[in-house]
Amino acid sequence: MLTGIETRPVARAPKAVGAEELPEHGVGLRAALARFRERWEPQFSGSAGPRYFGFVTGGATPASVAGDWLTGVLDQNAMSGEDSAAVELERQTVRWIGRMFGLEEHTGAFVSGATMSNFVGLAIAREWLGEQLGISVAQAGVGALGAVPVLSGTPHSSIVKSLSMLGIGRDSVRLVPTRPGREAVDVDRLAEALAALDGRPAIVVANAGTVNTVDFDDLRAIAVLRQRYPFWLHVDGAFGAFAALTPEHATLVDGLGEADSVCVDLHKWLNVPYDAAVQFTRHRDLQLRVFLNSAAYLTAPSDTPDFGHLVPENSRRLRALTAWFSLTAYGRDGHRDIVQRNIASANSLAEQLTASGLLRLVAPVRLNVACFTLADRPTSERVGALVDAIAETGETFVTPTVYDGQPAVRAAFSNWRTTDADVDRAAKAIIAAALALS
């Protein structure tokens, strides 16, 4: 399957395959594999391939795939350090990743993805808010906290989802105006919003890379506001944090290390298999208070608590092994190369699309996403038809969005396999689809 990933159709239109009855008698591994390849595998997309530009979807490096195989074979429960070195491997891998992003003073743990990383960070923030008011939310419950102001310019949907799961509520989000023509928050307006709280502690969610245009909040300027106002700074750097790897773009994440909690998603730009992300925080004492797993048969927390005391899951796949393999095999330089090539690919695609005269950018390419729309009559119906037509070619896959009230299309580059030839091939398919609509 891996050897043909570059040639298989990038997207698959969903088709009904019919219901299967639970087998009473097994057919064996070989027959099961044959049945899968006949019935299911042809309906799967080429999302691991070099021309899948939907969402922010990385591929999986060969080393990380080997790590994933071994993760399943060894089947460690990375909750406790009582019977295995698995948790120490995870701690080391977290430290490596922290160094990549200037988070040496933070501790962290692997979780399933950006949503769970944001959830954990905001759960710790919730406990911090309670501490400012003289209560422990972990003990008394969220009802003792009252209304929680959450301020953000362009929060990702997983932030809002996490607030719902945490009982803080979707309605707690207060959108702060962004800079003109940008998705980055206006720091002066943020200061005004904080001042209006009259000393009440809040949560500020900042972005290190928005989904539509990979825009970055001024993290350093936001952090300085804590000298005047009490708030927890959570930074969603799911994929934008990887700007730290390139000298040309590292300034975009200046101040990331000042955050109280940080989300980094690894099955995006680190190119490890689903699912893998890391949550970082400066406040492990509060994290322990939230996720403490107390039972007579479990080891009590020490200065280095087991992960079962730090994250929602008790049963935990050793997600760190895929990242350990990839970082060991390719190092910081290898992953920097992936980031730089993907950024160049996004710029190349943007140049080719705009040169056609059929498409235009709705925002500059700031990192690894080209956000564009039809040059003529970019209605939601026509842009939707464009996206469908592109997918039908099987050559590439992009996703629709709305930016500044305008229907648009986004192509996100984060796969290690993508080459200049792949970009050219995708551009040709996109331009042909646009031409058919003109």
Automatic annotation (TrEMBL):
Modified residues (N6-(pyridoxal phosphate)lysine): K268
Pfam family for this entry, one: Pyridoxal_deC
Keywords recorded for this protein, A-Z: Aminotransferase, Decarboxylase, Lyase, Pyridoxal phosphate, Transferase
Molecular functions per Gene Ontology: aromatic-L-amino-acid decarboxylase activity; pyridoxal phosphate binding; transaminase activity
Keyword Transferase: yes
Presence of keyword Transferase: yes
Needed co-factor(s): pyridoxal 5'-phosphate
Annotated InterPro entries: Aromatic_deC, PyrdxlP-dep_de-COase, PyrdxlP-dep_Trfase, PyrdxlP-dep_Trfase_major, PyrdxlP-dep_Trfase_small, Pyridoxal-P_BS
Superkingdom of source: Bacteria
GO biological process: amino acid metabolic process; carboxylic acid metabolic process
Alphabetical list of PROSITE patterns matching this protein: DDC_GAD_HDC_YDC (PS00392)
PANTHER family according to UniProt: GROUP II PYRIDOXAL-5-PHOSPHATE DECARBOXYLASE (PTHR11999), MIP05841P (PTHR11999:SF70)
Family: Belongs to the group II decarboxylase family.
Protein name as annotated: Aspartate aminotransferase family protein
Organism of derivation: Nocardia colli
